């Protein structure tokens, strides 16, 4: 099945809320408690969830919404920045390779449309499926981030991955 990315439409907002605020949809590694149900609407009305400092795109598997990817600008030095990215795939689309494809598409998009040299992603050390997806997408594992994330009442270690512009495969 073909995976594509597209901008968020107004009628996608309930889907985004479900994937980030419903414990049955977020998955074990993304459940951080209930969130403001108006947060996506306010940002969508402001900039369509696409701005100079980051954004969010819907993952499409054929004609179906399969999840979303997001990225945010991180300042590295006074003269450079990099992108931090992540994604959530809807439960019915997990384990089908859509996350790997979405990672590849977003990295290509970010390198094609900005001057950054680095895109990075992090996940919990026990999230083996996401680590496999990042590695299949061409990311390099850089190391363990001890005690980096608080979820479910305790601190969790993370794993940092990156891709540099030079690591990006040639366009087809």
From TrEMBL:
InterPro entries assigned to the protein according to its UniProt record, in alphabetical order: Acyl_CoA_acyltransferase, GNAT_dom, Ribosomal_N-acetyltransferase
Domain N-acetyltransferase: 3-166
Top-level taxon in the UniProt lineage: Bacteria
Name under which the protein is recorded: GNAT family protein
Family matches, as PROSITE patterns: GNAT
Lineage, top ranks: Bacteria, Bacillati, Actinomycetota, Actinomycetes, Streptosporangiales
Signal peptide: none
SUPFAM superfamilies in the cross-refs: Acyl-CoA N-acyltransferases (Nat)
Annotated PANTHER family: FAMILY ACETYLTRANSFERASE, PUTATIVE (AFU_ORTHOLOGUE AFUA_7G00850)-RELATED, RIBOSOMAL-PROTEIN-SERINE ACETYLTRANSFERASE
Organism: Nonomuraea rosea
């Amino acid at each position: 099945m073909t995976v594509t990315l597209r901008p968020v439409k107004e009628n996608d907002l309930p889907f985004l809320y479900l994937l980030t605020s419903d414990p049955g949809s977020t998955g074990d590694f993304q459940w951080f408690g209930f969130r403001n149900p108006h947060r996506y609407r306010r940002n969508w009305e402001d900039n369509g969830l696409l701005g100079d400092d980051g954004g969010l795109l819907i993952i499409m598997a054929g004609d179906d919404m399969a999840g979303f990817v997001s990225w945010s600008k991180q300042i590295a030095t006074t003269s450079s920045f990099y992108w931090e990215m992540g994604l959530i795939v809807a439960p019915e689309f997990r384990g089908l390779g859509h996350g790997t494809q979405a990672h590849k598409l977003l990295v290509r998009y970010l390198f094609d449309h900005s001057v950054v040299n680095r895109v990075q992603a992090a996940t919990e050390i026990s999230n083996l499926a996401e680590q496999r997806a990042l590695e299949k997408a061409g990311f390099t594992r850089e190391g363990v981030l001890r005690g980096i994330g608080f979820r479910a009442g305790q601190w969790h270690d993370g794993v940092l991955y990156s891709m540099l512009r030079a690591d990006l495969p040639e366009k087809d």
